[in-house]
Design a protein that fits this description.
- This protein is mainly alpha-helical and 69 residues long.
- It has one domain (2-64).
- It has helices at residues 2-15, 21-40, 46-64.
- The protein is elongated and about 35 Å long.
């Protein structure tokens, strides 16, 4: 899962110049919340974890529109 979090952070870094600061802060908050949730709750199955990661990725993809992540 750490690889997925790193990929989300890389995607976030690519969109910093194209979205407003409030959106970047929201993305940071969501990624940090996801990290904490995944660290805290080790009983979550892999599919649920992947689902959460994909939701965050979809959010980043949505706000960046046409940027190739």
């Amino acid at each position: 899962m750490k690889d997925y979090i790193e990929a989300l952070k890389k995607a976030r870094n690519k969109c910093v110049d194209t979205v407003d600061k409030n959106t970047v802060k929201e993305i940071d908050f969501v990624i940090q919340s996801l990290e904490l949730k995944l660290e805290k709750d080790t009983k979550i199955d892999k599919w649920k974890k992947l689902k959460m990661v994909l939701k965050v990725y979809a959010l980043i993809r949505f706000v960046t529109e046409n940027i190739d992540l």
